[in-house]
Batch of 2 targets.
Target 1
Amino acid sequence: MHTIALVNIFQFVNYTRFLQLLVVAAFPIFFGCNSQKTYINITGPAMGSTYTIRLVPQRGIRVEPQQIKTNIDSLLYVLNQQMSTYVMNSEISLFNRMPVNSAILISEDFRTVVQRSIHWSNLTDGAFDISAMPIVTTWKTGKADREDLNVWMPPTDLEVTIAKSKIGYQKIKFVSKSLIKTYKDQQLDVNAIAKGWGVDKLFFYIQSLGYNNFMVEIGGEVRISGKNNRGRSWQIGIDLPEPNLQPGEKIYAVIPIQDKAMATSGNYRDFYVYNSKKYSHIINPITAMAVESNIASVTVLAENCMDADALATALNIMSLDEGLELVESLKDVEALWIINKENGFESVQSSKMKIVKNL
């Protein structure tokens, strides 16, 4: 017997991660022996991180892995051209720069992501808000008129108030297939949900080839079809949320997954420091302030990765009680919270979440 651990950090570089939050690693753990089928592995760069496609060989499918990789890379390129704020002429960048009352015809993918974002904004009472880019940028930049621009300082109350006035998911408007700029300085950033949608897009493509048992992963976000090469559920590891540990160095829990998607997010690696005080990179769009919470990370299981991605983000902002109540009210959604306590970590999970602790 031998063990193979596939580890991927998901620092979403080509997207300024919504609310500037997290870097939490989730990775598949594979146990193997010589009698097993050998996986077909396809890897490459994706959205500032990497992707991994792991296929269980299947009779009757004769698509060359290189052709699959070429098509995947093309799909990812298109998504970047639609939703990356780092691509100057992407659809989202053009929207963010255009004047008020203008309209832009957007792709079906971008429209799907924005509409689903509004859905999660409504369900979380604004804890998830893709219009929060102005306040995230304000906190990332820090106080504007500080003497030393190389030393970060928290923004002033006035700067926060001004930025907060520029956000509001309720003002996102469509007319047919066009997105309307409804007010000055309206800016969108969909990176807290777009990577999940990217996983789903690759999942649909692999599914269209006829594969039944496979894994799609982009930067730690995963969607699973069927079983692994041992005929069992895929095993996905969750990092112990210690800031000084490398991804995969120490596992807090393992989650068995079959025909589900998973996303994990948290705030324990990224933060600002001023006068010895840490400020989270997670910015609450409701209060426009850096989050102060003992929630170290949240893992969400859902039917698709786009929803898991968005909800994992929101649950880092909502209180534990609010988040647990929301998850229990949703169909086919489960969650695991890792809570930072004075004497270590504790976990809270929704009623049907299956985990294996301390592998």
Target 2
Amino acid sequence: MSTPIPSTPILSLSQARALEAQAFDGRPERVEAAVEAVGRGLARELLADFCEYRRDAAPLRLLLLVGPGHNGADALATALAMQERLASVLLWQAEAGQPRPLREQKLQELKGQLGPGRLSIQGISEATPVEALMAQLDTWAGNIMIDLCLDGLLGLSASGPLSPVFTKIINTVNAYKRIAVRATVDLPSGIGQRPCFRADFTYATGSVKEPLFAAEALPHVGRIRFVPIEGMAAPQAQPPYLLTPEALAPLQALRSAGTDKRSLGHLVIVAGCSRYAGAAFMTARAALHSGVGLVSACVPAHLVPSFAAALPEVLWTPMPITPEGYLASSGTSIIQSQLKRASALLIGPGMGSFPSVHALAAYCAQNAAVPCVFDADTLQAELFEALAQGPKARAVILTPHAGEYARLQASPWAQQAPCIWVKKGPHTEIYDKEQHFFNCLGGPVLSRGGSGDLLAGIIAGLLAQTPQDPLQAAALGTLWHGQAADRLAQAQGQRVVRIGKLLDYL
């Protein structure tokens, strides 16, 4: 039985509305408290995420899009919470319907805090020309980028087609190129319609909504963050769930003073070829950072001297290779010998696609009695037939990217196999036949060679420590890897980084 993993359910819009109605109970003071909480939490998350673009403490210029409802109040509360970082705010106010009293209250508070010197307000109606809006942005921006745009036009209660006012604002902002970071409160305005606000980050407030995960929504949603609201805990629901950072708490706990390396698991890695030597090295290095007690790595023999000199903590085992530089299938006896002392096996990183590699993967699938992680080019449709011949009680984790996932799904065995899947992507999915989680931490900084090798090493290292709980190892490993990627990007930006530095932020 898997250990419960801290997460929050992904709700339909009707479920999310029911949750809000129950939490607020028609009491204005509860709504106001929730708006204040959203403002503080969203400001904190947004300023952290902005560091991926720029990491100095220079004052920011914010384009604030405000609708008449509570979503507009949330956006105003966010601006209030980050007022000390703001140089100036251009507020576009949609003149569409009667503003809610709380939204008006927050607007007056923002006026009082910023004053006319830092706050400019533009009411936008159906009659406002698009050319005038573009000209205003050009004048306000001058020769530099607008730092932030925060969308608070429409929220959970929005329904029906977009009005011309919202359509005009969304189209104008989407078309304007000189905005560095675009964010949205709860749901991108116009989601499921055209136009839809195009965000780099979406901050789901109080609950996480199902439409954010639709495949067609990705270009508009960007990266998803969850901003919880005290007193609005979603009840247990059917999967899927969004993993939350609280799930990583067990990794922060102190270990017993009597802990021995043999009690912390022994991971055996089979990885590498002449062409992709670095993948094996990075995988082993990531496994060491997971906290596992022992790591043994079976790699091409000619790589062992240099690897052992650079990473002496790993027990490097030389493997024979084919004339083409791939691990030879004659190495099965070496792997079997290593597995006698193992608590988990990882096979695949950097091995390449070659008949001998597929033979080694099939051998491990049929014979390894310990929990296994299969990665990279071992993920062939034929793997399922080999797994079906292996030990039935053994846990198996598969870590495909989108292309590998499509290849595996071509097998008729794919839906029947009792595996744990880690389907890598912008919103990585971790699931088995009973549970289904999403991880939304990480981002474009992971879009470089080697990130998958690090993930495989982290997951397998955790699996070796807790072989009785493979789903937790897969979920926590994915979340931990994503959180470290976020921290790396916030510290060094998305572009000029080496992916191996991610391990310094675990």
